[in-house]
Design a protein that fits this description.
One of its GO terms (biological process) is systemic acquired resistance, salicylic acid mediated signaling pathway. With about 450 residues, the chain is an alpha/beta fold. It has helices at about 5-10, 45, 55-65, 90-100, 115-125, 145-155, 170-175, 235-245, 285-290, 315-325, 330-340, 345-370, 390-405, 430-445; strands at about 25, 30, 75, 135-140, 160-165, 195-200, 220, 250-255, 280-285, 300, 375, 380-385, 405, 410, 420-425. Mean pLDDT is about 90; it is low at about 1-30. The structure holds pyridoxal-5'-phosphate. Pyridoxal-5'-phosphate binds near residues 80, 143, 144, 254 and 298.
Length: about 450
């Protein structure tokens, strides 16, 4: 738009109910940022107490760098983002499907919203050992997106329960949906009224006391856990499924870190627990399996046996959501997913996971040697360090300023995370080694 027309439109605009645009003309320049439209802000957005955690960490890191331009390079043990290249066989799958798009025979446009049939079948057989059926698998662009879409399906009338601390997406998306009330003076610090917070800490071995947990409609449960690194045992998951059955609740089981489980007997999927198909949805993703954080491919299992109170299969509504606001995962990327599940791909995934688990061991041993009590870091890529009552944001800043290492303050995962620091094992090995040296130098002083 030509600037003069833009100014004229802005000055003439004064529709009913609209807030008059605040325009400022500085010389010939209009400051567009000062213009407000007449649309009311979604009040649920205003209920969010802070920006999303990970961009906030990035903001603080950049602020440090701006204030200390001569700083040695910062090492990130922060956001759980993969760093190792995609292995050869899996990459071949991506390349192959990209190349097919350049041929008349191989070209494809929109695909099925639920994902390519072969990939759904392969996920069911290779990752779930036939415990679930291909039509119960919904392929997507990642589990974070699926959690948001699940909230849309559940709507604003449900009560959600979360582990405290937990991956922030469960709470933030519940707030955005309108499941919570505004924070008031009676609200416990850091909580949203309307959410059931299930304390998970060393005193209960990071598994909630279900006998004292109020009923919730939807319970988000993550194992191996982000951020605590705790994995739930078969007995614990059996208790969870029984609790959901007794209360008529739905479990949303987040298994994004399942391949990190190497201990025999620890379930990788909620469907290893008898009866789970009547009460549980599982979200999962290739992000951490195969370094697909940027590639984007995940899946959600909605068993046919899972039904809402009126008897409607949850699967039907999930299918409706996916068909309406999702247009299918990228055809290129699904080729990569198929390669992940070939024997060679599974072998490559196992090697990648072992690499990150070795990093986790290094971080855990270093922090233990420095006298900290440490949780997680075995069967999980996260190390949860007990700060002995110190503030986690203070410790985050102290480590950034002294060792130039980025960590994540536990408080960012909910009030129950205060007093802990999360370290991620997804950095390259050399960076992990150097971070351990820097932390040792810092804490040994
Ligand atoms: C517990 C948990 N669930 C889901 C996700 C999101 O994964 P995706 O990349 O599939 O969106 C993450 C990402 O870090 C996570 O930690």
């Amino acid at each position: 738009m030509v600037l003069s027309t833009f100014i004229a439109v802005a000055i003439a605009w004064s529709g009913p109910g609209m807030r008059a645009p605040v325009s400022r003309v500085a010389g010939a320049q209009m400051v567009a940022a000062d213009i407000a439209v007449g649309v009311k802000r979604n009040p649920n957005m205003a209920k969010l107490q802070a920006g999303y955690l990970f961009p906030e960490i990035g903001r603080r890191r950049n602020a440090y760098l701006a204030a200390h331009p001569d700083s040695r390079p910062i090492i990130s043990l922060g956001i759980g983002d993969t760093t190792q290249p995609i292995p050869t066989h899996i990459l071949g799958g991506l390349e192959g499907s990209a190349k097919r798009l350049g041929t008349k025979e191989g070209y494809s446009g929109y695909g099925a919203e639920q994902g390519v049939g072969d990939l759904r079948a392969k996920i069911a057989s290779k990752l779930y050992n036939g415990l679930i059926e291909p039509e119960e698998v919904f392929v997507s662009d990642g589990s974070k997106c699926d959690i948001g879409r699940l909230q849309l399906m559940f709507g604003n009338a449900v009560v959600s329960a979360v582990q405290d601390p937990s991956y922030p997406v469960y709470v933030d998306s519940a707030v955005m949906m309108g499941q919570t009330r505004p924070v008031d003076s009676a609200t416990p610090q850091g909580q949203h009224p309307g959410i059931v917070y299930m304390a998970c800490n060393p005193s209960n071995n990071f598994f909630p006391d279900l006998s004292n947990t109020p009923r919730a409609d939807v319970i988000y449960f993550c194992s191996p856990n982000n951020p605590t690194g705790a994995t739930a045992s078969r007995e614990q998951l059996t208790q969870l499924v029984q609790w959901a059955k007794k209360n008529g609740s739905i479990i949303v089981f987040d298994a994004a870190y399942a391949p990190f489980i190497k201990s025999a007997g620890t379930p990788k999927s909620i469907y290893e627990i008898p009866g789970a198909k009547e009460v549980a949805i599982e979200v999962n993703s290739f992000s951490k399996y195969a370094g697909f954080t940027g590639v984007r491919l995940g899946w959600t299992i909605v068993p046919s046996a899972l039904k809402f109170a009126d008897g409607t299969p949850v699967r039907n509504d999930w299918n409706r959501v996916m068909c309406t606001i999702f247009n299918g995962a990228s055809n290129i990327v699904q080729g990569g997913g198929l390669a992940c599940l070939d024997d060679e791909g599974l072998e490559e995934i196992s090697t990648l996971i072992d690499y990150y688990l070795d990093n986790a061991k290094l971080l855990r041993e270093t922090m233990e040697a420095l006298g900290f009590t440490v949780h997680g870091g075995a069967d999980a890529p996260y190390i949860f360090v007990d700060l002995k009552g110190k503030s986690s944001w203070d410790m985050f800043s102290h480590i950034l300023e002294t060792a130039q290492v980025v960590t994540i303050p536990g408080a960012g995962f909910g009030p129950g995370g205060e007093g802990f620091l999360r370290l991620s094992a997804f950095a390259p090995r050399a960076a992990c080694v150097e971070a351990c040296e820097r932390l040792t130098a810092m804490f040994k002083q």
